[in-house]
């Protein structure tokens, strides 16, 4: 089993090229490293830069009569020989189901099935040589399998009501990918883990008498994107500040798989806070967390959004020598321009570095 103490966690830099998003990180020495965003574990054989991101499963054709996706499809690239092994997070509960997992490697229009060299409660480990598309797959079974899942909540303030989007997804779906589709909503952070049955019917309920929930039931299937529509939608009166949510088997009302008390007013109150004050509150940690690449991206964003002019951007890029000074100058320059400018910086930070955005608690800030 992979021991937690044996690897180092890291937060990659996030880049955007049009509609494509990818992660980049430079490993300075050999060892095992786990990505904070994707939970992938890289067994690094020599110092190297790794570039990776999720792709649509349509790019890796599978024999649908015998194989199904069991995790996101990743496009992973690094210098030849830099990586010895890769470990992919899985959502299987039983050791029997874990034995049916493999990794599909798609290269040169061919799909190779790689058997795991090690199976743990959380990851499937494989030996790798050539880099390209990799994705966890499972054999098609003739019985319902238990799966580790997660319940994700996103709140949106509509004109006269509140709308709560409820997602019931496999545990190895990347939160960052779901958040990409929920921009403009407030992510309600709560303990999300539960266990569900494949193709079992599930429903969601809340303790608010006037709430409207749709649909009535959902047959759980593993969805690895790319769109991630909400599993359930709950429409609430504006005066609702908190509620108790429950996900249960539709065939048995007493068979609850997840139940939490959820507070909505805290998220909306934070959404109403002045963005300049929000930036001020997280200023020190934001300066520590920003890297040179993200700062360059944010400067370009602020220029294109008419928050900063050419001279101001140039003064940050050329007038400051170290990364922390550049970050400090950027943040303070934007803050002084008022609430609207600060909102735009927070909005672009969510896009450029979602992990830092969440780590700073800014994910409960709704940006218009």
From TrEMBL:
InterPro entries in alphabetical order: CARD (IPR001315), DEATH-like_dom_sf (IPR011029), FIIND_dom (IPR025307), NLRP_Inflammasome (IPR051249)
| Residue span, FIIND domain | 4-276
Q: What is its main location?
A: cytoplasm
Which UniProt keyword terms apply here?
Answer: Cytoplasm, Immunity, Inflammatory response, Innate immunity
Localization, UniProt: Cytoplasm, Cytosol
- The highest taxon in the source lineage is Eukaryota
The CARD domain extends over 277-364
**Name of the featured protein:** CARD domain-containing protein
């Amino acid at each position: 089993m992979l021991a937690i103490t044996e690897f180092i966690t890291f937060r990659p830099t996030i880049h955007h090229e049009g509609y494509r998003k990818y992660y980049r990180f430079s490993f300075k020495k050999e060892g095992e490293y786990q990505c904070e965003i994707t939970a992938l574990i890289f067994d690094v054989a020599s110092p190297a830069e790794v570039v990776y991101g999720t792709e649509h499963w349509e790019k890796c054709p599978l024999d649908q009569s015998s194989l199904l996706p069991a995790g996101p499809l990743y496009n992973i690239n690094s210098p030849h020989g830099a990586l010895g092994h890769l470990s992919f997070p899985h959502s299987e509960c039983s050791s029997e189901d874990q034995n049916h997992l493999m990794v599909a490697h798609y290269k040169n229009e061919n799909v190779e099935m790689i058997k795991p060299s090690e199976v743990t409660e959380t990851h499937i480990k494989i030996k790798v040589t050539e880099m390209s598309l990799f994705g966890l797959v499972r054999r098609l079974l003739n019985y319902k399998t238990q799966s580790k899942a997660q319940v994700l909540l996103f709140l949106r303030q509509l004109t006269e009501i509140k709308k709560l989007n409820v997602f019931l997804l496999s545990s190895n779906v990347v939160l960052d990918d779901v958040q990409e589709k929920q921009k403009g909503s407030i992510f309600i952070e709560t303990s999300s883990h539960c266990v569900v049955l494949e193709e079992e019917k599930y429903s969601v309920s809340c303790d608010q008498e006037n709430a409207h929930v749709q649909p009535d039931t959902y047959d759980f299937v593993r969805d690895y994107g790319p769109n991630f529509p909400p599993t359930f939608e709950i429409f609430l009166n504006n005066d609702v500040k908190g509620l108790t949510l429950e996900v249960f088997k539709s065939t048995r009302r007493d068979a609850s798989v997840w139940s939490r008390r959820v507070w909505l007013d805290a998220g909306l109150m934070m959404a109403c806070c002045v963005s300049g004050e929000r930036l001020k509150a997280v200023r020190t940690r934001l300066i520590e967390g920003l890297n040179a690449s993200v700062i360059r991206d944010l400067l370009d964003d602020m220029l294109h959004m008419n928050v900063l002019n050419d001279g101001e951007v140039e003064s940050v890029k050329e007038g400051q020598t170290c990364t922390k000074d550049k970050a400090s100058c950027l943040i303070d320059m934007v803050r002084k321009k008022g609430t609207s400018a600060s909102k735009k910086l927070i909005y672009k930070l969510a896009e450029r570095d979602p992990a830092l955005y969440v780590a700073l608690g800014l994910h409960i800030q709704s940006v218009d």
